[in-house]
Amino acid sequence: MIIVMKPKTPQNEIEKIKCKMESLGCEIHESKGHNYHLLGLVGDTSKIDPNQIQANRNVEKLIFVQEPYKKVNRLFHPEDTLISVKNETIGGNRFTIIAGPCSVESEEQIVSIAEEINEAGASFLRGGAFKPRTSPYSFQGLREEGLELLKIAREKTGLPIVTEIMSVDYVEKFVEDVDIIQIGARNMQNFDLLKEVGKTDKPILLKRGMSATIEELLMAAEYIMSEGNENIILCERGIRTFENYTRNTLDLSAIPVIKKLSHLPVIVDPSHAAGLWWLVEPLAKAAVAVGADGLMIEVHNDPANAKCDGQQSIKPERFKSLIKSIKKIADIEGKKM
Amino acid sequence: MIIVMKPKTPQNEIEKIKCKMESLGCEIHESKGHNYHLLGLVGDTSKIDPNQIQANRNVEKLIFVQEPYKKVNRLFHPEDTLISVKNETIGGNRFTIIAGPCSVESEEQIVSIAEEINEAGASFLRGGAFKPRTSPYSFQGLREEGLELLKIAREKTGLPIVTEIMSVDYVEKFVEDVDIIQIGARNMQNFDLLKEVGKTDKPILLKRGMSATIEELLMAAEYIMSEGNENIILCERGIRTFENYTRNTLDLSAIPVIKKLSHLPVIVDPSHAAGLWWLVEPLAKAAVAVGADGLMIEVHNDPANAKCDGQQSIKPERFKSLIKSIKKIADIEGKKM
Amino acid sequence: MIIVMKPKTPQNEIEKIKCKMESLGCEIHESKGHNYHLLGLVGDTSKIDPNQIQANRNVEKLIFVQEPYKKVNRLFHPEDTLISVKNETIGGNRFTIIAGPCSVESEEQIVSIAEEINEAGASFLRGGAFKPRTSPYSFQGLREEGLELLKIAREKTGLPIVTEIMSVDYVEKFVEDVDIIQIGARNMQNFDLLKEVGKTDKPILLKRGMSATIEELLMAAEYIMSEGNENIILCERGIRTFENYTRNTLDLSAIPVIKKLSHLPVIVDPSHAAGLWWLVEPLAKAAVAVGADGLMIEVHNDPANAKCDGQQSIKPERFKSLIKSIKKIADIEGKKM
Amino acid sequence: MIIVMKPKTPQNEIEKIKCKMESLGCEIHESKGHNYHLLGLVGDTSKIDPNQIQANRNVEKLIFVQEPYKKVNRLFHPEDTLISVKNETIGGNRFTIIAGPCSVESEEQIVSIAEEINEAGASFLRGGAFKPRTSPYSFQGLREEGLELLKIAREKTGLPIVTEIMSVDYVEKFVEDVDIIQIGARNMQNFDLLKEVGKTDKPILLKRGMSATIEELLMAAEYIMSEGNENIILCERGIRTFENYTRNTLDLSAIPVIKKLSHLPVIVDPSHAAGLWWLVEPLAKAAVAVGADGLMIEVHNDPANAKCDGQQSIKPERFKSLIKSIKKIADIEGKKM
């Protein structure tokens, strides 16, 4: 951390800050330029509250040298983290496909889609039981019943299940029922929820918030890890920008950046990013090429009658041919499916 | 709602959609141009799911004519909504000042700040007990103890209290303890929480999410109203943009827009928007001039030792002089404090 | 400037950079932490090219302590710059109103609007002769003829004229014909144009680009000043964000920020920011309250038949009543009109 | 175009608008709902100015059904446009690599880089002679001398050359000297420049502006085409968003979207988007997978001493190995290099 003092700050004010910082356990490296006076804080800065420093009226600004996240930081954990879920591994040289409908609608629907994606080569079944919807008048999911139907689909196909949690009240039930708990984009900074799932050892799929920076996504993961749960899979699903032809702007640069900054696996959800079914295929292929560890794709056998997000779901046949293209690119990237 | 069919859609596909829409209770006005074929849906469109229409592969796009929110829409409720809290009224020709520290730190701190802002002319005391913090290593608030201290400050000053809720588990307690329940920007789309506070009749201060459009803010308010609670105060607190000199970009245009679209009162939080104490004063004055119904301002008696957000808090003396300027502009706008 | 070396950079690589920096005239303050090794550059850094440092594969990142702009920087020029145009002064304790139609359409139109705004209290007449339009099929302005009509309106009312230049080929003509040359948002980084107008001594009204940071706006002004022209008036006119109810998001926080960072006067254009006539009035008032040095407002006597941007133009009567409100707020702010 | 009238607009006002529209050559399809009254304009709407309609105070909003661009629209030109430059073709099933340094620095530099990229498999040499730089104190390019050096490199390698134009004054010279004229992101809406290059028949590489929507990019291309030049190659190079780990956010979704909306070829510049050399490789591969028609990549033999943007340039060896990966993915996509 580097404190930039305002031009013309009286020396005694600078001394006060130095004393305070030293009393909190830091060593101070001072550097005086023509206009600014810098105080570099070295050593253990964990007891220092940046906001307090910035609140000092003589401080021009505060510059951070080191990332604020620790447990998710690759600097302190150079090897890739691998997440084991039943017989599957996520991360490393594996490429993982999670697929399924936006929401669970009926036993017949979820079982038949599960069978189709299983046959096509997916490793996980996704399906929403509890649905965050922008409008209170839209379908809100089958809730507990949806969870039961997912379990039936899992039993019939062997595919482990991934589904979204929306409230701390359900953590216990999800730990028992599902294989990967998804935290959606809208809850990426629902800190109470992050802490609760952090106390379990269930794999967590953490989606990037619509307006979250990469650093904020990593800080959200840090919340989970700081409670003890190290099984985290990150997911890029598009950010909000001025361009609105697409629902969101898929930020594929985030993939190599995250892999540089953190040891956690990261997958891509092209369906929610684009919001348009015909964009899913090119974006999925690009995600493999850019180095993602997997994909989460919405597949529906009857999009025009889907209860949710049919416009971004692809049909099983198209999914099958997509998997074939993906495999070829994954091969080039040295990843196994 | 207007359905734009893809160029060259076969007539029988158009007929299918028409049939389906009619069976759901709509009348259809058809319009055929050179390249596109439009179907305008008139009448009761409440049973129609826009996503399903968009999922139809022959549909080019869907155009919405009417706003998706109903209960918060000024079209169906032309008069301003006034919110009564104890002896205070928010909205209409009143201009309301809510002030206090970012977080409650101690009895002495909260009581002394409450006394100062009370004397200066504020009508409500704010103070965080449960704090959403980006880092798990930052101060997370005094939680229940913070609520107790706020109640002591209320008793000593008579100021009603406003504080943020972070989890559905606390709704009952907040209803009992506080006067206005705040939903923070990060929880604006925590739909379970919106529904729960919607079932109470406690006034809700709903802050705009960092990347929420005005329409999404109004849809979040619709969630609360659709459960029965009509006591909602909206709050603009800055949106995320590419400009990062300021923490967020305060969107003051949103104030007259919201007042045109909705009957709900709307206030401005310049402290969180700017993130810098010296910007609070000019932005607060601009908020009055643009037509806001009130302000929420962070005030701390010792910002450099505040446990949270000291860099954006102003001191009581400055707050007092700010209130005087605000009063003059409020006068011009015909608002009473 | 602070160079952050990558963790584990070999010492000889660090020495190489130090040597190079010293040979370019800098003193180096070194600071070694647990993970990073910092090199602080003090003294004359003008010969250093930041891009070259960042291109060094051992450099993690480069941190800038000082602003990249010099001549526009308030640090080296603490007093407000005042711009004199004929009998008018812009900046300091003056509040300036520039008004007129989006584009000059005919002699009758521009003269009659000029007379109305003159009577209402405006100090400058604006009107586009050369128009940057998104579509090649839209009205592109009367060009040279438009300039002539502006001159007639000036003669009849005494109002100095402001109009936009679009190409270096016209600099000489504009210097002769107009009183303030406007550089539009789309040309804020047309560096050849900036340099050319920088070689004149004509006052320049420089509008912020739609996606320009405050720093980039100041760097554009630096281009002009570095060629010798110090008569620059900055203009905030809205930035592009995800919110699209309004054409752009007016960034009023930029006003106090610019006044802190620079000595140049800054005005606000609420018409282009909002893109909707009924937003002009509240935003104009907010601009006065936030501390702007003036306003540029589109006024048209027949918006529904305007050849350009009628939807954001207000009528003369409304302009007159707006001027009255503005005067009252300017009074509170200690500004004279 | 659909006009949405305000609720409760008097019938005579609606009649006035209808008359006006009909007099301009449109047919009107009327549709009256509970709250809104819609007027659909069918037929030749070319004489209608949308701004004038929106300026009518009884009009709630205007909805566009059809795209505003015509000549670049795939609807009226279903086949891919192929651009011929010397022996090369861009578009269709060709995948084109343009490579070279950010700026031309010396004969030795440009010739040796040209030889290396030629050997590696690039088809075009890029290099900046006229450089748009944010700071007036940065290297501004060798200008005319740079053009001469590019011509020498072309002569020695046979590679056609691509370089950026910054001012209308140079159009004639560029037409004579270079093979593809580049319009940079900052000049995407320099309409005078677009018109001038539109009058030539030289291939134009048009880069998307940093905050330009896809529609605005296509409208800029329309400017060029409306003057007669149909040889346009579009280029995605990143847009400005709130995420600032990367210089810009590369919007790869734009590629399939542009290919759907327009018949023009579109390439990707990963170097400027990312601003970091280690991101160029993954983003380049993703660009091939997402369906781009080519890449423009910055290559420098000595990035740490480059006069410009060394931090985003890759070295020739890395470029060679990248080309091999790209070839494999291009194969899968059915594209030839």
UniProtKB/TrEMBL annotation, chains A, B, C, D:
Task: Look up the EC number in the record and give it.
Answer: 2.5.1.54
* Location of the DAHP synthetase I/KDSA domain: 89-328
Q: Which GO terms describe its biological process?
A: aromatic amino acid family biosynthetic process
Q: What enzyme class is recorded for this protein?
A: transferase
Q: Which GO terms describe its molecular function?
A: 3-deoxy-7-phosphoheptulonate synthase activity; aldehyde-lyase activity
Which InterPro entries does the entry mention? Aldolase_TIM, Class-I_DAHP_synthase, DAHP1/KDSA, DAHP_snth_FXD, DAHP_syn_2
Domain DAHP synthase ferredoxin-like, residue spans: 1-67
Lineage top rank: taxon: Bacteria
Q: Key word Transferase present in the record?
A: yes
Q: Cross-referenced SUPFAM superfamilies, in alphabetical order?
A: Aldolase
Q: Which UniProt keywords apply?
A: Transferase
Query: Which residues does UniProt call coiled coil?
Result: none
Q: Does the keyword 4Fe-4S apply?
A: no
Question: Per its UniProt record, what NCBIfam families does this chain match?
Answer: DAHP_synth_Bsub, PRK08673.1, PRK12595.1
Protein's UniProt name: 3-deoxy-7-phosphoheptulonate synthase
